[in-house]
Amino acid sequence: MSLTFGARLSELTASRGPLCVGIDPHPGLLAAWGLPDDVSGLERFALTCVEALAGSVAVVKPQAAFFERFGSRGIAVLERVLADLRSGGALSVVDAKRGDIGSTMAAYADAYAGEGSPLAGDAVTASPFLGFGSLSPLLDLAAKTGRGVFVLALTSNPEGGSVQLARGADGRTVGQAVVDDVAARNAGAAPLGSVGVVIGATVTGEARSVDLGALNGPILAPGIGAQGATAADLREVFGAALPHVLPNSSREVLAAGPDVRALRDAALRTVDSVRAVLA
Which UniProt keywords apply (predicted)? Predict the structure, then answer.
């Protein structure tokens, strides 16, 4: 890839708007679309999303778990989704949240960031909670192949705080330490680093005090729409870091399906609401 992920993301969000839409084909949504809870339903759901979104939004984030639950045939659908998103012009983030050590992490890196791997999108999500250094094989390979990594930092699930807001010997929270480690990876990158963080748009309390000033990378912010956050909440949560925020909306957009035009219109309305906040 001739441009880094950070550069491609900056370019595409400038033209299409800062929005990531998830493809989350869980059983409830398949049923709501009148589709069977099997591989045929998964494929129809996912490819309808690609048709609606690939040419209009900047980033699309397929949730790997909902493909993996159908075994090899589900993985094959995910591979097609990634190829079709690439052809359609959208960037893809594979939401796999991988995290391990040593040769196992290196194998995950080959799968999700390796050149020529059918599971390698433009970026992948990763969990740093075996120690940030454990992600080095993935971060190094992604940098080599021009891909991005979004590292979990402060998630909005109620269980997350017991780990992410715990304090180390230096007084920093775990979440802040992750942000600082990502910032070190992004130092000097222009126009934007390719290692991002995941911070929920619905985080409250102490989680909102994280210092993002040196991050120099994108912030994937799930929670817009059905999870309760609005575009207007982004300013309060992220403050001066707002220009680097990539809000994610899944259920609210996907609820407009299965009509392709309705899906696309729902996504574009969300883009407009986010742009209004950023203006």
Answer: Decarboxylase, Lyase, Pyrimidine biosynthesis
